[in-house]
Amino acid sequence: MTIEQPTTNNTHRSGKPSVTQRWLPGLGWALLMLPILVFGLIWQQYAVNIPKWDDHALRHFLFNVDQEPTVTGKFYQLFKQHNEHRIVFDRLASLLDYQLFGQLNYVHLMLVGNLSLVGLLWIFVAALRRSRPAVSGQSALYAVPIGWLLFNLSQWENMFWGMAALQNFSVVLWVIAAFYFLSYTTHWRLAFVAGVLATITSGNGLMVWPLGFLILLLRLPAFSGKDNRTSLGPIIGWLAGAAFVVALYFTGFEKPDGVKYVRPGILELSKGWFAVIGAAAEALPFNSPLRTSIVLGGLLTLVIVGIVGWGLLTNRLVLVNLFRRLLSPKTATGKPATGLSSMTVFFWSCAAFILGTSAVVAWARTGAGIDLLITSRYKMYSLTGLALVYLYGAALLPKPAARWWLIGGIASSVFFAALSYFAFLNETIWWRHWLTTNQFNWTHSSSNATFSLDSVSRRYTPPTPAFYDEALPVIYGPVQQTPVAVGITKIPGGYTIKNTTVPTQGLGDAGAYLMARSAKRTYLFPVWQQQQSMVKAHFSPDHLFTNGFESTILSAETDAGTYQLFVLIVSNANTYELRPTNQTIVSSGPPTTVEAKNW
Questions:
Q1: CA–CA dist 476, 20 (Å, integer)
Q2: Cα–Cα distance list, 37 to 169, 292, 393, 466 (Å)
Q3: Which of 285, 301, 327, 363 is the most buried (most CB within 10 A)?
Q4: β-strand partners of 578
């Protein structure tokens, strides 16, 4: 049977804590704050208040709520289905932000979502403290590797996307919070509240109900009365509440229109499942990120399943007794029943949620392209899985082994986080450039610098100041610079444009942008900067990028027409050059019918 470590009191013979014992807790908290601080500084540098994809749905929600004349109509807009989800939490956060600030700010939504990671880290610290009370004063120190695993640039897509941060980070917080309350306390009503929040945040939050029920079954002895009779009240209350919440969730539920799922074969599905579970491996410097992710996912799955299997084997007698107690709750009196350790139950439930969610993602997305499964938005489950395995070892290993587990955890997690900040800096910069150029494209739709914006956007999400505001005279002015050589390759639906000579300008808004100009209007597009390895960059972000860039322009993103290509170069000193390429591209325009996508 797996048991939790007994409490000890390591002090000097005088009874007073040693100097080391006095300063270790403070050092632990300082070290635990470091990954949060680094994460926050990077986020503050690159976050921008511009909507992407589903973010526009939150603005539309605010408009619909204002248009509804009745309270019931407003509640309908709040609970209305969004794809397969009921995004009530996202909408409430958006509504509150709008009421407080007079407009919707997507950076505020990112902040709330990112703070969910802080809450998740706190839960892991609390679980570690309860599972290893002998080192409760050092629980923050032992949690440092978890901090680096959760707070790193592998999370770039969610951390810089308002709705994604709210949904993808928060649902994990609510689910694991529910598991914590059920595993470590008897406050099942708090777990129920967390379960409701998970359900109204994302569809996979529904998994909290069956898994929570299993936790309550496994922890029956914790709910025994003074006479050791088993109380079924929490189980009955949980099931009744779950039935009510799930019934409301699926009332009026409809399969999203136009979404086509391509079902993969069992082999591809297995690869996709492992890819989601091991997606964190994309940060590692290997030639095939997908293959590396599949390998890591397979290994992580084996470890998790092995831990669960060993726990089932060593606790088989306990499980048999629990089953007997469940069948005869009235006769289960006398000797107190022995239950599973809280960490065991917590690990099993969290592992089931991570593996289950990864399976659902693989089942729904593998057919659309297995490469999609290692994108940043799904990495939360891989990173949380790694953190969970570390937590289990830190909580239950013998003290000497736990110390080496801590040392190895800190070294490997810091190294991994450093790799992520180098590996995904290009994506982070491109993401900011993509958002700002998209804002330009939807607010400048004519052949001159005239600004245009629909009344709904102007009211709820006015445009954010961007680098191009001061560059408008250059963007729409004459071109008198030396031409830039680019290579253009026709691809299905658009063009790929490459350059090898334009020097890198910086790590912010400075850099090269492609510009496409026709007689009717002008578009801006971001580029991917050429990048070298960390070693060649001497581990300095300032030397990570080299001359040249690559970009893709799709016909779906432009009106039909013939466009001259230019390169807009923005310097760190906020000077602007518009360089011709003496090249043109032809766009057929957006397709007349667009197949709905659900990723």
A1: 66
A2: 18, 29, 26, 26
A3: 301
A4: 568
